[in-house]
Each structure stands twice: as C-alpha cells, then as structure tokens.
Fold this protein.
Amino acid sequence: EVQLVESGGGLVQPGGSLMLSCAASGFSFSAFFMTWVRQTPGKGLQWVADIKGDGRENYYVDSVKGRFTISRDNTKNSLYLQMNSLSVEDTAVYYCARRSYNWYFDLWGRGTLVTVSS
Amino acid sequence: DIQMTQSPSSLSASIGDRVTITCRASQGISKYLAWFQQKPGRAPKCLIYDVSSLLSGVPSKFSGSGVGTDFTLTISSLQPEDFATYYCQQYYRYPLTFGGGTKVEIK
C-alpha cells in the first residue's frame, strides 16, 4: 500500500528539541521530493521544508531556517525533521507529503501533533 | 513571498448548489496551482493540480480554472460529502504557500 506514516510528535517545552519521522511505503521513495507541511490548531496550512530525492537540496520557510533540519534516509525509506529551539508558535500538526512528478502534493500522511508548552 | 488570498473565508450552501471559491496570487504563478479538500481530523486531499487537471478518482463535479493570478474552484452540485474546508496552493516558487482556506458549511 502506498502510504506515509508520521511519528515522533509530543509535548515539548519552549527551547526544546524534537525529531519527527515519516515512514514511506509502496513507492520508490528516493525518486521523489518530500515535504513537511504544518497546520496550527484551527488554522491554515504552512509549508515548512522540502528535500530532493537524493537529499542534496533542501528548502525551508524563513520562520524555521536555522532551527529545523530536513533529512532523509533512502535506505530506510524515511524522512525526518529535526526541530530545535522550539517556540509556542511551532505548535501544530506536522504532515509529511510527497511531491509528485508534476510537483503538487499528491500523497499525505495522517500527521503528528507537536505541542510546545511549559 | 507569493501571497495566496482566498475568498470567501466561509460560505453556507444547500445540497445541489453550485459553489465557486476564488484564489488570487500576489504575482503570476503560471499553471502551478493546486486545490485541496480537508475534512476535520483528516489530512488534506489534492483535488486539482496545474489549475484545472483533476486527480484520478476525483468526481467531475469539481473543476478548476484561471490564469495568471486569478483562479477558481467550482463544485457543480454540492453533495453532503463536499462539506469541508478547501485550500488553494501555489508551487511555482519557494516558499510554497497556501491560501487561508474556505470553509463550506451546510445552509
């Protein structure tokens, strides 16, 4: 089955760190750009980061540059998001998504909730 | 950054109504616009990409149109399963950006 499954969310204090994982299955993982998108409670969607199939290029929204790192392990069909210096504004559901060959997000995971609170 | 402005932010409609949602980009985005449907507690689901291309399995009651900076999602005959929040998104340039969403509710 073609799917993405996120894990690693939870409660963390401001200033803390968390690493999210996304396990991919059912498709040729290394052939696709992969993405993290977040959604704040009751609000809209925000693209967070992208990584090329071979892992050699990545892109970030300004608000997370220098704090978040997107990475992947194609041998494990896994995508990661290392989040450091977390603030309450980072509280959101984090989705991993696949960018299709036409560049739109064609496959999404169910999301994992990150709550930053003291 | 390219700002995506959706309108309205919410609407109430009846079963069978024709519904139109608009999305305006702050600069030209060529054909690189997608529409997503999201239901409570679920991940977004892509309905349309490249302005007007319907994803496989998406009913033909959904259609997209537009050019340049102004785009439209139309639902030809609203059904109970269509009550959801809809988002547009540009993938022309980084940072990728979404519209603020349009919540479609039952009248």
Observations:
- Chain A touches chain B through 22 residues (CB under 8 Å).
- The mean pLDDT of chain A is 97.
